[in-house]
Structure formats: C-alpha cells, structure tokens
Design goal:
The chain contains six helices and no strands. By secondary structure, it is mainly alpha-helical. Helix 2 runs antiparallel to helix 3. The longest helix is centred in the N-terminal third of the chain and has 46 residues. The chain starts with a helix and ends with a helix.
Length: 233
C-alpha cells in the first residue's frame, strides 16, 4: 500500500511540475507581447498631436496594436483554462483572470484611439502581474540534479497538501493584486479636477477596480480556507 501511495504521489508531482512548466511558457510569451505593446503604445502617445483627429495611418496602426493587446488576453486565457482545470491554486487563477480582463479592456481602448495615461498604467499592471506569476511558478520548480535545494518560506508540504503553489506563493500573488488595485486607485484619484469630480470615462475604471478588489477578497478567502484545511490534516 505504501509503495502504491508513493507511486501516486510521484505521478502527481510530475504532473504538477509539467503544468508549472507549461504555464511558465504561456505566461512568458504573453509577457513578451505585452512588453512590446506597452512600448509601442508609449511611443504612439508621444508622437500624437493633442486634439488632432487620428490620421488613417494612425487608425490602422492602433487597430493592429489593439489586436496584439487582445492576443495577450487570449494567451493568458488559455493559461487560465489550465489553472481552472487543475483547481489547486486560489490566487493564480484570480491574478491571470485579471490579466485577461485588463488586456481586453486595454485592447478596446486602443481600438478606440486611446493611448492615454490610464491605458498605459493598466498595461504596466499587466506586465507586473505576469512577472510575479512567472517568479512564483519558477520558485516552485525543483532544483536541477546536483544543485542544492532552494530555501523555502514554508515547510515542505505533506503529501495530502500537494498543490500547484505553496501558501507563500499564494499570499505573494494576493499581495500583488492588492498593490495593483491600490496603485490604480491612486492614479484615478489624482485625475480629479478642482471640484473633486472625476473625468469622463472614469466609471469604467471604477468598475474594473471594484472587480479587481473582489478578486483579491475572494482569493484571500480561498487561501485562508486552504491553510485551515492543511492545519487540520
């Protein structure tokens, strides 16, 4: 019985390692495209004439840029499907879901000719989220043969607690999501005019911030539940 259990655990460990590697590759590709799109959005905004209508050439360039921005969300969406199928992480699916939604929103804005500060701020947050996700996934990979094991922030899991990420990784992801909401809230608050009114179009940003906060709250609750279950084992 012990040998069977050990074999099952070994297979599960191999499955999780393969899943982490696949997710890292998918998210790495999404990050590379996002970094290119962010840089081109910045350049396009710098070259625009304020108040002037977009030329036909500029409209076509922004349409192509919007399509590439949408591709970031599509790539992240494929990773999200794998995460939901696995079901053992609470925070990573929430973070990737935010990337999917934010990339789609940025694509809509770019397609409408918006290359302003708000769009670029959301693009930076997409990049930050993807970078942290990659770091957390990399931290879970076992060292190569012959290398000393990396120190862990949490004790090694008991076999029953095998999951895609450990608690330290889950908590780091939730902190990343909360920090993003806080930064973007500050950016939006800074756009109030002398009367305290937010600019036109702020409603959509507020809705996205509210959704982001909802994800953080749900992820924290799920991580807390997982930690409680582990302590009871």
């Amino acid at each position: 019985l012990a040998s069977v259990r050990a074999a099952i655990l070994q297979l599960e460990g191999q499955r999780l390692a393969a899943l982490r590697a696949r997710l890292r590759e998918m998210l790495k590709q999404a990050l590379a495209v996002q970094q290119e799109v962010s840089a081109e959005t910045e350049l396009t905004d710098e070259l625009r004439v304020r108040g002037a209508a977009l030329t036909r050439a500029q409209q076509l360039e922004l349409a192509a840029l919007a399509a590439r921005q949408a591709a970031v969300g599509q790539g992240a969406g494929e990773a999200l499907a794998l995460l939901r199928e696995d079901g053992s992480s609470a925070a990573l699916p929430a973070l990737v879901e935010g990337v999917v939604d934010d990339a789609a929103a940025c694509a809509d804005l770019l397609g409408g000719g918006d290359t302003g500060a708000a769009v670029r701020a959301w693009q930076r947050e997409i990049e930050a989220a993807l970078k942290v996700a990659l770091e957390v996934l990399a931290a879970e990979q076992p060292p190569a043969s012959g290398e000393p094991p990396r120190p862990r922030e949490q004790p090694e899991r008991e076999p029953e607690g095998m999951a895609l990420l450990d608690v330290a990784g889950e908590l780091r992801l939730t902190r990343t999501m909360q920090a993003s909401v806080k930064r973007l809230t500050g950016d939006l608050e800074a756009t109030r005019d002398a009367t305290g009114r937010l600019p036109d179009g702020a409603k959509r940003s507020l809705e996205r911030l509210a959704e982001g906060q909802r994800r953080v709250t749900a992820a924290l609750a799920a991580v807390d539940e997982a930690l409680t279950m582990r302590e009871e084992q």
